[in-house]
């Protein structure tokens, strides 16, 4: 008989903190699944409060701690969101959610159908709450839908089944054949799974019982072979079970760790409970509980929603749209489709995204592409090229995802379309092409889904504009902002309107027809509690979940953009500008979110209303007035505000109203503005998750989920220091597994944990530094994206000369602008000048040299006045360094560094580049690491502090369970709770070892030197030599073990240490444990079982085959080039060989040059020299080949390069205009041996050597080797 505990509490007028001790005592006293309910007199997050005054965060944190310590999960509710009201009138009204049901994860797994209701009441200030655990009245699924299981991929039989089923057996188009083979695959895989898998849970249970009996037989002396075999089979089944529940839980962030099956199972259970449709409230307020009727209500609603309406005023909307698609763009869009485009589209899909009606996720195609790829590509290309799609591949399941926590109305569910992957391949290929032209054809006021534009662009513009309006106190006429929300924006798009907009914009009719084919062949079935219901054939709407839909919606929004631009041009509405020189903003778009600006007058208000009415009639869009808000400038009178609010029928904005998820205004109470970030972080690390996740799982959750929560906000705002520290405290507490009221020892400082793994840390982020690194990205965009709307709006006010580096902090700006300016010092420390014509670069006190650690000149230079530019060090036309002047004026160290800098023959302007990345563009990662490095450089610690120790890489790359890797890492840091460590922290009195009593117990003693464990290590013969050595620390011991390149030696050592530590703890607690003599054997078994499973899953790809040089086929000549670096002399070598179609040498070159120690720079100079050399000997038809993939890609790209060697490549591209035909290809070093040998040979020459129709004698053997490979 199972026992459960239910506790009712009343904490009225008392503190949760006072009663927290009682809760914790109950939790420690009983191990039963339990549920707790009552009036807790406290809330856990700011969204559970509605009133005039903000809630104290410290009070909420105390309640959160109790919930974490007791491992409670809130059971949620149905009904109104609050349970208590103070019943005061006007602004004094306060609503709180004080009453709730909470339960442990074990209780919920037993009563997964539990539902809490907030009931109505007129007698008390509290609402009654009611819990029912009756089974959910969900209609049983008539048939189980086929879903490809991720765990199938671990079995070879899966591929065999697919291969047998993947044979065309019907006539028809390639797409029809693929559909039939997919259906057959699903059927055969189901039958195969039923035989080979069955019930994983049942098999695990049976296998555990078999293992128990085998162990009993082994103990009685009947052999141990069966035990080892059964353990391997059980581990394989457990891995499959974990994959199964991971796929169902949708916890895609957890990619590696120990077995987290319990966590995945709980996630899947909570997800199913949250998404179950058990009750619906109709238009009259009555509850509908009949499952069949609930399904019918949803079907009727979406049939009406997807029904087209007659359009009006379309011509008026089209009149505002200017054609923007050129003939060249149409040629790009309609060019022949290729196989590579299909392959790229597939790679862009997440493997375990929810599949469509055919049940096949992207993982199926990605894993078995060699089996299905050929036919799939043919089917996709035939459908696109013919311009027709079979309606069957466009049938879509619609998953209804709750938009709010406790949905009761049809409109509170978001319809997400689950399309077949075979269709999504078509859609994604088209979307990838459309993205190429979007930056040109979509208005700059739209920041969503357009390559090169960021969501934060419009956030920053909106925030700055609202801040300007908030402080606008002068002028007779005020300004207003209207924040629009379109109801069911995607679902209401009229197909006819979309088609006419595309034609008016200038899209080719062939492209328009293809777009319309994608959206008009759609049909839907709604997934009601997992069962497809209905068959809806829409006549309007775009699918959320279709890759092409966001881009098509942008085209629709161009209609509203045209209306507003036309009205502004005619003077009917007037926008808002930050200053007199700045552009006037009338609107900002982010997909279906819109922010309109105009004067706060009734005339402009009526005009805006007229424009919106026209757009609604023409496009099918519908304004959601309940979510539309107004904001007025400070100089707008209250009477005018009231009149406009009455005209539009919408409320005015509150202080902390959100726009695109961020505050519209930030005042002095910054903690209150950003409090929801802390609430969200806490919700992700609740105590129950800590219990179910291994430490490796907690590490990944912190990195992939927790640290990502504040990232979006930190892109625009500098978070308060206290908030960052509070979030880091939550993460630390979660990581170290603190429970109850005990303060667990944080054995390693947070600063150390935030170091990269290669430096001995765990790679967690220091939020304050990461915040600055994110803001620096915005600063960098102001420096380099001068055609963006963001730059056009901010520049006139804050830096009229166009250079943000010269922006004055005295100019009054918003909190966002002040936040961005705090990143200026990081940009200055990580950037340096790329020398062009030298007109902008100061000789003194500027970064412009190439060597890392030697960016600035150190020579005294008394002859150069302050402000002298680098141009003074150049002469001639084209420009070159004035060598005599440089050697006479600078110290030799500086002079050599200057002369290494190449000068472009085109004399371009100087450019500030980011020297911490290879491409010269700022990245958040590099900025963050510079901030970490600055702290390390100022740290007075050891000289090795911050250096990369190869030991850490060895530890984290071990083929061992994550818990063992983590354990060994902790042991190397002396962060295990050894007696010495505990005594230093005054937790225990004596540091002496309990096992032997003869030595101080640190990690080295407890795991290696203790006499009590000597019998364990004596059986490990591979460590016999190491046992004879003395070590000062456990860290030194592990480094020595890792230096022995023996298979799995470090892994076995780590496993033995882990088992010894486990036995030490079991002995201390007087619990049973293995004998010391068995530990070595157990460690080897553990590692071998882990290696069998994981090496099979992560099989290594075969080594790349050796490549040999091949003569040109379609070109007359092949020019091979290579570069080499001679670091001792700070010089480089260039080698070039030109051969014809027969492999005969035309000319060879070997040249010695001054260069910086950069492989990319010497390779770029080699490419340029190869082009020059070909022109010098009269070759104009050639294929150029090198072994640097990066240089080949960059010289073949039409985009300008922003790195230090970019000007070299730009000069090389300019030379290519002299060629009749040319091409660049990449080869491996083995196919470029002659050029490589010539480059290395340059070390032995003075300057330049050229051989016509010949090679140097020492290169002849290398040349003959190429000849032999041609003939073989």
TrEMBL record:
<feature type="domain" description="Reverse transcriptase">
    <location>
        <begin position="382"/>
        <end position="664"/>
    </location>
</feature>
<dbReference type="GO" id="GO:0003676">
    <property type="term" value="F:nucleic acid binding"/>
</dbReference>
<dbReference type="InterPro" id="IPR012337">
    <property type="entry name" value="RNaseH-like_sf"/>
</dbReference>
<dbReference type="Pfam" id="PF00078">
    <property type="entry name" value="RVT_1"/>
</dbReference>
<dbReference type="InterPro" id="IPR026960">
    <property type="entry name" value="RVT-Znf"/>
</dbReference>
<dbReference type="InterPro" id="IPR002156">
    <property type="entry name" value="RNaseH_domain"/>
</dbReference>
<protein>
    <recommendedName>
        <fullName>Reverse transcriptase domain-containing protein</fullName>
    </recommendedName>
</protein>
<dbReference type="GO" id="GO:0004523">
    <property type="term" value="F:RNA-DNA hybrid ribonuclease activity"/>
</dbReference>
<dbReference type="InterPro" id="IPR036691">
    <property type="entry name" value="Endo/exonu/phosph_ase_sf"/>
</dbReference>
<dbReference type="Pfam" id="PF13456">
    <property type="entry name" value="RVT_3"/>
</dbReference>
<dbReference type="InterPro" id="IPR043502">
    <property type="entry name" value="DNA/RNA_pol_sf"/>
</dbReference>
<dbReference type="InterPro" id="IPR044730">
    <property type="entry name" value="RNase_H-like_dom_plant"/>
</dbReference>
<dbReference type="InterPro" id="IPR036397">
    <property type="entry name" value="RNaseH_sf"/>
</dbReference>
<dbReference type="Pfam" id="PF13966">
    <property type="entry name" value="zf-RVT"/>
</dbReference>
<dbReference type="InterPro" id="IPR000477">
    <property type="entry name" value="RT_dom"/>
</dbReference>
